[in-house]
Design brief:
The complex is a heterodimer.
Chain A (H helix, E strand, L loop, with lengths): L4 H12 L2 H10 L5 E2 H8 L3 H13 L3 E6 L2 E7 L1 H15 L2 H22 L4 H7 L5 H35 L1
Chain B lengths: L18 H14 L3 E6 L6 E6 L9 E7 L5 E7 L4 E6 L11 E4 L12 E2 L7 H18 L13
Antiparallel strand pairs in B: 1-2, 2-3, 3-4, 4-5, 5-6, 6-7
The chains are: A mainly alpha, B alpha+beta.
């Protein structure tokens, strides 16, 4: 390889995508508030371009912005948009019956963590100084997160049916 | 193709695993590499991403990437093949004496965690799209050369 792999893929990415695609791609999983300047760096676009696209993404609900008088506006992926995206993806992959089964299994798994550590949430464990190894912590947090998406998927499925039925009348 | 040894160290990612990130990694990888087919480990209880490669590097006839990516952008990108060869690119806090950053590489043939052998990772880009593309490029480079040695991009013949 005569060219550094990082330079190669960055050049390819810039060549093959639009500035909007890159900003949206970067924001897709940006969960901590970031400035337009930092986002521009990561998306390989100018700050002006980033700001423009971020405004559009905020307008459409993909991104949430938090402006404050003390510093620059911070942009984050909208949590609602993210949850809906995952819930919709889940519905495309599985039938409701399977979904219900998985939800039950995840709730059982979480119950066992709560019993084992005698706290309701991993965050509470940290507050109380209960020691949980990183592997278990990640597993617990991952299941809570996936369960949230799954529960939304189930609710979404039911609501869609109702709304579509009422639309047909 | 054996199951690689999931040591405690390889599970030391901060934060929950990010289903959205894994889906993004999968889409990018499949778009860029025709020989790749990705599938989530757990469509709902998602704990990772598996990317199967239709052909192997060198004498191997197939290969697979197991990817874990957390909401804190820590990751494991583990490669294994039907000759039981393993290697891994990681980003997460560790207590190896070197390298100093979170990015590191466990070299083949067994993705060793021996502190003397763990290397700096050649992947310095950080966004999912770029890391996925870099992984494809590194795999392609090894595939074209027919060898896993030098895959971490640090040993570059002039």
């Amino acid at each position: 390889m005569t060219k550094d792999v990082n330079e190669t893929v960055t050049d390819e990415w810039v060549d093959e995508t639009t500035t909007f695609q890159r900003v949206r791609s970067v924001m897709r999983t940006t969960y901590d508030g970031q400035t337009a300047s930092d986002i521009a760096d990561r998306a390989r676009v100018s700050e002006t371009t980033a700001r423009k696209h971020l405004e559009d993404l905020t307008e459409s609900g993909y991104v949430e912005s938090a402006s404050n008088t003390e510093g620059p506006t911070l942009y984050t992926r909208s949590t609602e948009s993210l949850i809906l995206e995952e819930a919709s993806d889940i519905l495309e992959r599985v039938e409701t019956g399977k979904l219900v089964q998985e939800i039950n299994e995840m709730e059982t798994e979480l119950e066992s963590y709560r019993d084992e550590f005698d706290v309701e949430t991993p965050e509470q464990a940290a507050l109380e100084g209960t020691i949980i190894d990183q592997q278990t912590l990640t597993a617990w947090q991952t299941t809570r997160r996936n369960l949230s998406f799954a529960r939304t998927a189930l609710a979404l499925s039911g609501s869609k049916e109702t709304v579509q039925a009422t639309n047909a009348v | 193709m054996g199951d690689h040894d999931s040591t405690e160290e390889s599970h030391a990612l901060r934060g929950p695993l990010d289903r959205t990130a894994l889906r993004e990694f999968c889409t990018v990888f499949e778009d860029v590499e025709p020989l790749a087919t990705g599938s989530l480990e757990g469509e709902i209880r998602t704990t990772g991403l598996r990317i199967a490669l239709d052909d192997g590097i060198g004498r191997a006839s197939s290969g697979r990437f197991d990817v874990r990516w957390s909401t804190a952008d820590d990751y494991n990108i583990h490669y294994t093949d039907d000759l039981d060869r393993d290697l891994r690119w990681d980003v997460h806090p560790h207590d190896f004496p070197a390298p100093t950053g979170d990015g590191h590489h466990h070299p083949p043939p067994d993705a060793t965690s021996d502190p003397d052998d763990v290397e700096d990772s050649c992947i310095t880009v950080t966004t999912i799209e770029l890391v996925a593309r870099a992984t494809v490029t590194l795999w392609r480079h090894a595939y074209d050369r027919g060898t896993l040695s030098g895959t971490n991009g640090l040993v570059d013949p002039p």
